[in-house]
Automatic annotation (TrEMBL), chain A:
Keyword Nuclease: no
Single GO MF descriptor: ATP hydrolysis activity
Keywords: ATP-binding, Nucleotide-binding, Transport
InterPro entries reported in the protein's UniProt record: AAA+_ATPase, ABC_transporter-like_ATP-bd, ABC_transporter-like_CS, P-loop_NTPase
EC number in record: 7.6.2.9
Protein name: ABC-type quaternary amine transporter
Pfam families reported in the protein's UniProt record: ABC_tran
Region called Disordered, residue ranges: 286-305
SMART domains in UniProt: AAA
UniProt lineage: Bacteria, Bacillati, Actinomycetota, Actinomycetes, Micrococcales
Domain of life according to the entry: Bacteria
Provenance organism: Amnibacterium setariae
Biased composition (Polar residues): 293-305
Chain ranges of the ABC transporter domain: 3-238
UniProtKB/TrEMBL annotation, chain B:
Family: Belongs to the binding-protein-dependent transport system permease family.
UniProt key word Membrane: yes
Species: Amnibacterium setariae
Protein name (database record): ABC transporter permease subunit
Residues covered by the ABC transmembrane type-1 domain: 15-201
SUPFAM superfamilies hit by this protein: MetI-like
PANTHER family listed in its UniProt record: GLYCINE BETAINE/L-PROLINE TRANSPORT SYSTEM PERMEASE PROTEIN PROW, OSMOPROTECTANT IMPORT PERMEASE PROTEIN OSMW
Length: 305, 233
């Protein structure tokens, strides 16, 4: 299930342009992250995929099929959607929220609820929560229910609009790891929107950095973007300019470990350097990229949060 | 009090007549107002027109309306339907505003998220918007219920049986006991209706139990009746 944007433009009646000539291929079974500041059109682009927003010009294709020819309600039922603040129905229990789409598509209630219990397990929620109302859950639990609901119809495509934007950093970290695990298990074609560059690099196979008006600043893997920022905007956005990504070794670790500090002098993490030599080329060449960061700059995330 | 004990039959039959005037007006008022209120919540123009119309209708004095309805509709002057229709007009005049506020109070994120899950238009209305508008609709219908029961006493002025008969009769005979009896009966009836509606709301909205009214619902209550209950008498 690949998704393709072809010269997509969105102008509102009042004359504001949300997206200007955007083209992109989202490959199947991988995660593409749209990242940018507010007003960059990332959410608009996401919502065009399931026709919550129709483009003024251009096409969006799912497996070569133009979505403008698909009836919106039917289209939305086969695309999972997870949003910030969960968007759960406050008057339905957790289990009925998860079973929403299967019930809409005519699955008998008993079966839909039975399947939904399995989904609670899958997203790491206790089945005892099944009959609670969303208002009785914590923010992190609500987001897990939101993810379970997005997966309930077993869609090939999963759209996620800043799903972890409103939870505290520790819970966000858990949810991100959980999403990576789910993605390894399920391999959905996922489009994820965030304004957090660390989240984008952690989750994205392909990262799209957007400027105001839906203009693409750079498309690439996290490693490509970090190693070769296309311009000053990207360098600034990923934090390279502020020295957050420029790490230098300070030989002050226990055993073989070397402490890394960023340009501002903050400790960023540790790296193994047996005999005082860094063996970094192999890890990067093997394609593991920054995902296998033994250099984990958690201090940055805490600072941003 | 002797008078009360010797007239229990009359009090009971007047109460039943009063209920018969009010219940159709309250129920129909709700049924008519929900679609109008929904429309008003979706379109600014409709909201302006409907709410202004509601305000204008509400300012017509009760006695004038009860006299006007049979003339306009060509019904016999002593038909109780005249009073019910007049009460219905007042009920809608109040309830449309509550209903418009009720639908406007539905969280835009929840509505948007439901659309994104694949709810069609009618499914969105029946399964999401109507239930979520419920608490504010409930607050509105409670005001309508109390106001209608109070207003229905005006029926006595055009010779139709209701609890208002105790007021007119008591005044004419300068007999305070009868007036007070009518007053207490109206208050008790209004309280009973309020409790019943509250219980229906509780049964229909289990997720809402134990929650207090939203600030928006409280505001609706405060502004729903511009002149206060009974201003039309």
């Amino acid at each position: 299930m690949s998704i393709e944007f072809r010269h997509v433009r969105k102008t509102y009646p009042d004359g504001t342009t949300a997206v200007e000539d955007f083209s992109l291929v989202v490959p199947s079974h991988s995660t593409t992250v749209f990242v940018g500041s507010s007003g960059c059109g990332k959410t608009t682009l996401l919502r065009m995929i399931n026709r919550m927003v129709d483009p003024s010009d251009g096409q969006i294709l799912i497996d070569e099929e133009d979505v403008s020819r698909v009836e919106p309600v039917a289209l939305r039922r086969r695309i999972g959607y997870v949003m910030q603040n969960s968007g759960l129905l406050p008057h339905r229990t957790v289990i009925d929220n998860v079973a929403t789409v299967p019930i809409l598509t005519g699955t008998p209630k008993a079966k839909a609820r039975q399947d939904a219990l399995g989904l609670l397990d899958r997203v790491g929620l206790d089945r005892a929560l099944a009959n609670r109302y969303p208002g009785q859950l914590s923010g992190g639990q609500q987001q897990r229910v939101g993810v379970a609901r997005g997966l309930a119809a077993d869609p090939n495509i999963l759209l996620m609009d800043e799903p972890f934007g409103a939870v505290d950093p520790i819970v966000r970290d858990e949810l991100q790891q959980e999403l990576l695990r789910l993605q390894r298990e399920l391999g959905k074609t996922t489009v994820f929107v965030t304004h957090d560059i660390d989240e984008a690099f952690l989750l994205g196979t392909q990262v799209v950095i957007l400027k105001r008006g839906g203009v693409v600043a750079q498309i690439g893997t996290p490693a490509e973007i970090l190693a070769n920022p296309a311009d000053d905007f990207v360098a600034d956005f990923v934090g390279a300019k502020r020295g957050k990504r420029r790490l230098t070794a300070e030989e002050r670790g226990a055993g073989d470990d070397v402490l890394l500090v960023d340009a501002a002098g903050y400790p960023a993490g540790l790296i193994a350097a047996p005999g005082g030599r860094l063996e970094l080329a192999d890890a990067l060449a093997a394609g593991a990229g920054p995902k296998s960061r033994s250099v984990s700059n958690k201090t940055d995330q805490a600072g941003d949060a | 009090m002797d008078w009360v004990w010797s007239h229990l039959d009359l009090i009971w039959s007047s109460t039943l007549a009063h209920v018969a005037l009010c219940v159709p007006a309250i129920v129909l008022g709700f049924v008519v107002s929900v679609p109008l209120g929904y429309w008003a919540s979706r379109s600014t123009a409709a909201r302006g027109v409907l709410l202004t119309l509601g305000n204008v209708l509400y300012t017509i004095p009760g006695i004038a309306l009860v006299v006007l309805v049979p003339v306009v509709l060509g019904l016999p002057i002593l038909n109780p339907l005249n009073v019910t229709i007049a009460l219905l007009i007042y009920a809608v005049a109040i309830m449309v505003r509550s209903a418009a506020d009720a639908f406007a109070s539905v969280d835009a994120d929840v509505r948007g998220s439901a659309r994104a899950q694949g709810f069609s238009g009618p499914q969105l209305f029946w399964r999401v918007e109507l239930p979520l508008a419920g608490p504010v609709l409930l607050a509105g219908i409670r005001v309508v219920s109390v106001s209608t029961i109070s207003l229905a006493t005006v029926a006595a002025l055009v010779g139709i049986p209701s609890l208002g008969g105790f007021f007119t009769d008591g005044f004419q005979r300068s007999f305070a006991t009868e007036v007070v009896t009518g007053l207490v009966a109206v208050l008790v009836l209004a309280a009973v209706f309020d409790v019943v509606i509250g219980l229906i709301g509780r049964a229909l909205m289990p997720w809402n139990r134990g929650r207090r009214l939203t600030s928006r619902a409280a505001k609706t209550l405060a502004t729903a009746v511009p002149g206060g209950v009974g201003a039309n008498l």
